[in-house]
Amino acid sequence: MPLDLSAWTPPERGALFVITGASGTGKTTLVHEALKVLPDLDWSVSATTRRPRRGEVDGKDYQFVSTEQFKSMVDAGEMLEWAEVYGNSYGTPRAPVVAAMDEGRSILLEIDLQGARQVRSAMPDAVSVFVLPPDFSVIEERLRSRATDSEEVIQRRLADAWEQLQGVGEFDYLVVNDDLRSAHDRFQAVLVSELQGVSRHPSLVARFSGHR
User: Fold this and answer.
1) pLDDT of residue 137
2) Taking a C-beta distance cutoff of 8 angstroms, is the pair 22, 160 a contact?
3) Sheet with 127-132, side-by-side order of all strands
4) pLDDT top residue among 19 and 155
5) Domain CATH number, residue 200
């Protein structure tokens, strides 16, 4: 049974949810479904120095900036995390995340282990969720079922997946994606639970704690 949000109490301050998991664990599927069904939940738009591809929209798919702009943002501490990938830089601007949270909206940031560590260092109150497979062999099965990668690429992805999994103990919550429907429910339950926390509803607390 899906979560009943008919009596949803919106938080006064939103949350930054950092979602991490090895390739092949289904974390992207969980994130996209949560964005569809949970209110006031947004996707984090990354900044990048790479050129836009056909059909990509600035501000929606990515925030496209020059190399000089990106470096300036990093130097000014305006990035929650960043990394260089194949000669291009990618990062998460801090300002839009903070602005959304102040408005009571929450941000989902799907990122690797290294990026998650940077975000938690920059914003310790971020809520971290690690998506796990029921068993490591499932990752290999899913990678091979794609039938698009060479053996060399598969082995590289498996090595990277194993490296990502070594950081699982650093996270606030774990969601094992053994059954997709159940995993959706548990993942969304984590998000809802966090957004109903006392610290996110100070006015409600004040109203009732002062009632006689």
Assistant:
1) 86
2) yes
3) 41-43, 106-110, 16-21, 127-132, 173-176
4) 19
5) 3.40.50.300
Res. 64: pLDDT tops 90: yes
Q: pLDDT tens digits for 119-134?
A: 999 999 999 999 999 8
Phi, psi of 88 (to 5 degrees): -115, 150
Residue 84 lies in a domain: no
Q: Does 147 map to a domain?
A: yes
- Please state the three-class secondary structure of 2-66 as a single string: CCCCCCCCCCCCCCEEEEEECCCCCHHHHHHHHHHHCCCEEECCCEECCCCCCCCCECCCEEECC
Q: Phi/psi zone of residue 81: left (φ > 0), alpha (ψ -120 to 50 degrees), beta?
A: beta
Separation of alpha carbons 99 and 93, rounded Å: 11
Does residue 114 lie within any of the structural domains?
yes
Q: For 49, left (φ over 0), alpha (ψ -120 to 50), or beta?
A: alpha
Compute φ and ψ for 180, nearest 5 degrees: -60, -45
**Domain coverage including residue 156:** 16-44+105-209
Across the range 160-171, mean pLDDT stands at 91
- Total tally of structural domains belonging to the chain: 1
Tally Cβ neighbours within 10 Å of residue 142.
15
What spatial distance separates the first Cα and last Cα of the chain, rounded to whole Å? 38
Tallying the residues shown for the chain, one arrives at: 212
- In 3D space, the residue among 83, 105, 124, 111 whose CA is nearest the CA of residue 23 turns out to be 111
